[in-house]
Amino acid sequence: MTNFYLYIFYRIKMFGVSNFILFLLIFVVDFIWAASVSPLAPDLPLRKTNIIYIPDIDEDYEDETSKPSYGPRLPWETTTHLIPQECDYDPCVVHEVSCSEISARTKCYCPGLTGPQELPLSPQLREVKQGASGEAQVHWCAPLSIVTHYKLMVEGREGLPPVFGQFSRNGTVRGVKVGSRVCVVAVNDAGFSVETEMSCTQFMPQELSQGAVRAGVIAGSVGFLALLSLVALLLWRQKSCQKDRSLNAEGLGNPSYTINETL
Fold it and tell me: Are 144 and 111 in contact (CB under 8 A)?
């Protein structure tokens, strides 16, 4: 306030009383005009602004912006997940190629095989029958082993056993006697497979087998008839003995029979 009074005193001294009154009137009018044009705004209380969050719009926007856009996939870029399947390889059927070659060509998988440095497992002998010329025809299944070739071993046969390739599943042998033991043996670099009941059987021609069955039926029928005859004979003799005993008993009980015999 002291400075304000000094300022007024300075104006009065500088301009004089009349000029100071005129200056004061102009100042008051100017102040009133400024107050009417731009009045002072009252102090308003502060309010908290609530921000409304719309998840759908934001999430869609984020999804659209976060997902990378891919162009059309080229044919050679297309990948498919294939489930490995077992190879169509029957060990009992003749094949021109091995299962490993089929697997490499079709992407299938083969059953596990023992290596070439291990003795091969025994093949499975499926059938031995007599051919049209009397030879023995043998059919077998390959084992789960690496095999280079097969041999047919015949009991009582002279000479070297016949040899068949690794893809063979059938073979013929001549000079085989009826009832001889026939075995198929697998061979590789480690040696020979073991002869087992699964890889061996007896050579029994079908005609001989039917004849043996027919002979057995006839022999059984004859034996049955003989047994019936024996039973009938025994029954007849038993009845005859009982009849004789009954006649003797009647004769001993009659007195006239005794007197007549005495006279």
Answer: yes
Q: What is the pTM of this model?
A: 0.49
CATH architecture of 124-207: Sandwich (2.60)
Going by C-alpha positions, the residue among 193, 205, 181 that lies closest to residue 141 is 193
- Confirm if 127 and 139 have CB atoms less than 8 A apart: yes
Q: Where are the domains of the chain?
A: 1-35, 124-207
pLDDT at 263 over 50: no
Percent of the chain with pLDDT over 70: 58
